[in-house]
Write a structure and sequence with these properties.
Blueprint: E1 3-14, E2 17-23, E3 26-28, E4 32-36, H1 43-51, E5 58-63, H2 69-72, E6 76-79, H3 91-101, H4 108-116, H5 132-143, E7 150-154, H6 162-179, E8 182-187, H7 190-193, E9 199-204, E10 207-213, H8 214-220, E11 224-229, H9 232-241, E12 248-252, E13 255-258, H10 265-274, E14 279-285, H11 289-297
Parallel strand pairs: 4-8, 4-9, 6-7, 7-8
Antiparallel strand pairs: 1-2, 1-3, 1-5, 9-10, 11-13, 11-14, 12-13
Helix pairs in contact: 3-4, 5-6
Length: 303
């Protein structure tokens, strides 16, 4: 498995408080990894450690399969917290400063980047007069200037209006699909994140409690009748032969999930019981993505 980022028990302590608690994260090459947690859960601190802006108290980080982090971090672009830009300069002037700092000889690179992130035509407008979405695009442009293979973005859509969110979403998909850039993006705007993420990690109170991909997430949120029984084999036979239900699965021993005829829950239960199946629990399961995330996070997604 090719991982762009792999961490082992990364921990950060401030005083007696573990801000990041033994996090083991796995970001696959080519993924858009949605990093989800409440404000204060440890997302930003974790990203800062990966980027080399803070040192872990313990644990290890691998980038592109290597522990030579100084070298590998040259392949990373970051936008953590607010974009570091000069408000009294234009976007082009800001990128010109970046170009010179990075030692990039080709002056055309500035105009090409402005075009790519959708800021062409803003040559006369100072950044202090930009919308929040325009500032975020400029921040992303700065993070892209060294043609990174891996992009780390901390809440890039926070505070944006719907149009700004849509613009950033389309830009990130373009970066991932056209340039093959792997992206680690934190957010608590769960509905938007679910439109672009291929993989997810859930952090709660500093600990990464779960990782899964988008297909698994959709499966977990799929509406179904969930039945816990003493004999799943017998129950399956009854569903197929007596009730003519074929759209079900057995995710683990003693559990069935039925994805059709959900309006006939009582009839299904009665048929199972009269044919010798003991039902321990039976209920409708599944919910929307935001509801599922909130359940994992332990309440509201955003404090």
């Amino acid at each position: 498995m090719d991982y762009v980022l792999k961490t082992e028990n990364i921990t950060k302590v401030y005083g007696t408080h573990k801000v990041v608690d033994h996090v083991c994260m796995h970001v696959k090459k080519g993924a858009i990894y949605g990093f989800i947690g409440k404000n204060g859960a440890g997302k930003t601190t974790f990203m800062r450690m990966v980027a080399g802006l803070a040192a872990p108290a313990e644990g290890t980080i691998e980038l592109f399969g290597s522990k030579e982090l100084e070298k590998q971090r040259l392949r990373i672009g970051t936008l953590i917290e607010n974009p570091g830009v000069y408000g009294n300069m234009t976007a082009k002037e800001n990128l010109e400063v970046v170009r010179r700092n990075f030692g990039i000889a080709e002056k055309q690179a500035v105009d090409d980047m402005l075009e790519f992130v959708g800021l062409a035509g803003t040559e006369k407008k100072k950044v202090k007069n930009f919308s929040m979405g325009m500032k975020q695009r400029l921040g992303i442009a700065i993070s892209l200037f060294r043609n990174p293979d891996f992009l780390i973005l901390d809440e890039p859509i926070n505070g944006l209006d719907p149009e700004g969110i849509k613009e950033i979403r389309e830009l990130l998909l373009k970066l991932n699909q056209e340039k093959g850039i792997t992206i680690l993006i934190s957010s608590h705007i769960l509905g938007e994140l679910s439109k672009i993420a291929s993989h997810y990690g859930i952090i709660r109170d500093g600990a990464l409690i779960e990782e899964f991909d988008a297909e698994e997430l959709n499966d977990r949120c799929r509406r179904c009748q969930k039945i816990i029984v003493d004999n799943e084999g017998l129950a399956a036979n009854i569903l197929e032969e007596k009730l003519h239900i074929s759209n079900f699965d057995i995710p683990k021993q003693g559990v069935l999930r039925i994805f059709e005829q959900l309006e006939k829950l009582e009839q299904i239960n009665r048929e199972l019981i009269v044919n010798g199946v003991n039902i321990l629990e039976s209920y409708l399961a599944g919910q929307d993505l935001e509801g599922y995330f909130m359940e994992l996070l332990g309440g509201e997604a955003n404090d």
